[in-house]
TrEMBL record:
Residues 60-84 have a biased composition (Basic and acidic residues). Residues 48-84 are annotated as: Disordered. This is Uncharacterized conserved protein, contains LRR repeats. It comes from Plasmopara halstedii. SUPFAM superfamilies: ARM repeat, TPR-like.
Amino acid sequence: MDSLKALDMEHRSGISHEEVEEFANRMDMISKAMDEIKNGTFDPLQCKIPGYKTPEQEEVERKAQLKREDERCKREAERKRKEKQEEHENWWRRAKLRFSIEDTEVIDETNDKMSKSKRWANRILAAYKTRDANDYSLWNRWEPEDPVTLQEKAERENELEKLRNREFETQNPDFCDQFKKDMDERQKSQNEKTRLAEQLKQRGNGFYKKKEYMNAIKNYKDALLASPFNVAILANIAQCYLRLEEYDECIEFCTRTLFLDPKYIKALSRRATAWHHQKKFQKAADDMKKALELDKENVDIIEQHSIIVGDYEDLMTKQELEMTLQRVEMTKDGAHALASEPSSLDELRFYLNMIQKMNEHTVSDKSSYDRVHDAWVAYDLVLPIIKANDHVRTIFRTSGEMDKLCARISTALQFPNEVNDGTRQHTETTILSAMINCATAAVANTPRNQVILFRNEDFRQHLLTYFKVLSATSFDRIIQSSILCFLEQVVELKSWKNEILASNNIISSLLAALCLPVTVNASSDENTAGMTITLAGASICFTLSSEIAGIQTFTRCGCNCLTAIATALEIHCNDDVKCNVLGFLSNLSTNNEFRRTIEQYKDNYQKLVLRLLEISQDNAIKSTISSTHVTLSERALGVLLNFSITKNSLLRTQYLFEFHAVDRIENILSHVTSSNFSALLLVLSRTVSLLCRLQPASKSSEQEFKHVIRRELLLKLYTVFEIAILNVKDETNVLSFELWQLFAQIWCHFGSCIHITNVRALLSEKDAVSRLLQVLALVHTQHVQKRFASEFNACERLIGNLVKVLIAMHSDNVSADLRHKKKLSILVKTLQNLPDGVARKNVAILLAKLCQIDPEVKDIVRDLRGIEMMMSISCSSAVSSR
């Protein structure tokens, strides 16, 4: 046994002497600390026990660590700031150096071109003033600058430059080869950089779509290293910073983009948005005005312009009104200035006082009615002022009261009325209806307010949700009638229109509103609300159907749409409702798919056609005809014309004859007089057009054809023609398109049956030839061929039909009236002014027949240069037939 090893503690326990010594020292320190604690002399900050820290020491160390971390962050931020500043300065220095040189070269070149001739002219003028006028020595150095001379000079200079270059390349082949090699290498390098920039840009686009904006910015900035002046990349970086709400950076990169391309619309739009978020409204408005000037058809730019420029104008208007009101309180002159404005001082003061008191009572109201406060009845008092006063509407918008109103309406619509007290229900319904009416008054003829309320998503959603199902209760009907009146005011705005069309439930409710019945036993308020719903619903449907998207939406409803329209026209007596429903139907009937769809539902379709014929007749034969009656009749006839546009349509082949359309047309024609002709002009044009639609279909039945061409009907039709001629009091005044259309349709009907002897006899009896020539002369007097294409096309059809009738009557030996030189000159002028077509060919045929009968007529036509035109028409017809 080794006694030394036995005494060696380190060997026996595995614990070193240092550890033992450290442990002993720690115990001594702990003992000392305990003694100090007992004595009350212990200092936590001076405690030096190894491996142990007092809370105070930990706090000191934590603060020191935070200070070091803060200093590190500051150093890092300063480093990034310096890098950003350096990058900013480098980019702008390079951009200004590069693009300012290019701009200077362009400016210098332009100035040189513009000033060189002026400089010589000034020198010559000075010499003329200071020396003898006959001294032309300066002219020897003058160089002409006309286009031909400049082109010749440029060609000579190009040839000389080519010769110099060829000679230099011959004498310095090594230098030129190396130069070309360097050029190729630089071009390859540039192409490689462009490809790399495009790859990085596409990668950044991928991150942007994933909404990883920082990764997108990193890739875009890497792309900038390869292509620093790529405007698309700069604009993309600005968009990422805009998404991250780092508006200063967004503005910086938009400014860079616009420095390179001042017409880059996206950069203007994004910078305007950033300015707007920073409340720098004037700068934002200036950018949006520039963007709108560059692209006036861009829907997004138009909407953004409305928002941003609207906010700026609101700010200016609010400040102006506040200053004016302050002057009013201080000086009498201010009161006079405000009184001269459309809004009066009394109205402004009343509005402000009422709003203030209402808000105070709302805050102090401790009642249990949180859904609708009694104090909000003040909205009913300020409603007339908001309707009539533009300045009040502006203050209502800019002061935040309109947003407050929307929030209150949203809250009231969100929570149903669960009060059992009928009186309280009526009170809340009245107040809420007045609140919605205030919103309606605020948006009436004020697109700015319409945009703002559409941007209020809670208000928009709750308002539309409340109308998705048409309620049967009287209280809900009153609220829904107010909502529909609001939608009627805003539906012209594209955003509101799209929102309504996107909801099938709202479309179904609108169609249900059209055929809402009037209940006999209901209260007057309920019936009034029901009529308001129907009238506003019809107006909204009319507006929605004015665009293709609306027509397609209603066409998908098919049977429901047809049923609603037919029922509405049957049960409602209100002319305004019928006008809007007919306008709605008129728009829908222009769509082929809609016409095909409704023909499948024959019962409702028949009922609708019969009602349309009744409306068109009843409103056209009234003793006193108003503009509303005319509108009803012409819209009903317009729908019938649209329904019968195809030859095989049910309306043309079956229903018009079943429902005695010819008798109704004859009845309308029989009520035309000189006094009501002007008012009924459009109705007559469409009435006769409908008669012409019956011609082809009637030929399948001998009885129907005789009915269409019977003498009584033709006499009334010719009487309308005579009244129309008599109403042309001054031939120099421009005649309307509707009148030309009426003439064309009348003689279209006569032309289709002119082959019948009795028809020609009737026209001979009425001495129609002279009237027809009078109309032809009227065409030349009016110079219709120099006006709108639609008018000229109507006149071309008219001339074709007139000449067709004249040709037929010529065969009955009534051509003596046509042989006078004056009337022949009318035919030759007609031949001269018409373009190649059926009408011109008919005129040539008529002249040829007249020339065959009488040699004198041939001589007159030759003198009028008509023979050459007839031969030209004959040759062109022969060539086309081949």
